[in-house]
Amino acid sequence: MRRLRAIEGAGQVVALAAAEKVHVGVDVHKRSYHVAIWSAERGWISTWVQPADNDLLLTRLGPMRQAISHVVYEAGPTGFSLVRALREAGYMADVIAPSKIPAPPGKEAKSDRIDCRKLAMFSGKGLLHAVKVPSEQQEADRQVVRLREQLVRKKRAIKLQIRSFLLQHGIAERAGLDHWPGNQSIPCANSSWVPSCGSAWTCSWTS
Q: How many angstroms separate the CA atoms of 104 and 186, rounded?
């Protein structure tokens, strides 16, 4: 029988055999991390739940660092900060494409605890496909592009709302409404229906 050695980190005790290698699966959420440790020799060794704190996870994994072969978690809204922290600390870590995680046919039980255990086991069996982790600069550039696209869509929707508003109240569109090429202030005809505005009403927008 192989002798196990107890490794304790931040109150979490994990018993590992000499030269045993393990895989770590993390189910990442906004407020919590569910963590599982899996070994090809003994299956699931340990699971725990902790606050969503990268430094705390590194502290708990630290005592078994030499035994850890791979750390994985699913791509999601939490982004890439965890994988960057793990790699910076010297771990082999990847973010996994959710659509490429093996799934049996039919319905199956699902929970955070089950998900992290599956990630650890699939990692140990080489069944996962990692996504490319962008650099912080690449991620920032993508966010700027996405923000611009969102603003363009909002601007288009606002223009449609203005034209619908004019049509609803029988206000004739001024020439040039199809192309709003800059800062414009266009007086709208037939504005007497707005008592508080007096005899003139102005629609202003920035394109």
A: 61
Q: What is the C-alpha to C-alpha distance for residues 8 and 84, in angstroms, rounded to an integer?
A: 24
Distances (CA, A) of 168 to 161, 163, 177, 182, 187: 10, 9, 16, 25, 17
What is the model's pLDDT at position 33? 97
Contact 158, 172 (CB under 8 A): no
User: Rg of the chain over CA atoms, in angstroms?
Assistant: 28
Q: Is the pLDDT of residue 186 over 80?
A: no
* pLDDT tens by residue, 138-162: 887 888 888 999 998 998 888 888 8
Sequence-ordered alpha helix ranges (H) in the chain: 54-61, 81-88, 112-124, 136-168
Go through the domains of the chain in sequence order and give each one's CATH number: 4-133 (3.30.420.40), 137-205 (no CATH)
Q: Give the per-residue pLDDT at 182.
A: 54
Q: Alpha-carbon dihedral of residues 181, 183, 189, 193, nearest 10 degrees?
A: 130
Residue, of 166 and 56, whose pLDDT is higher: 56
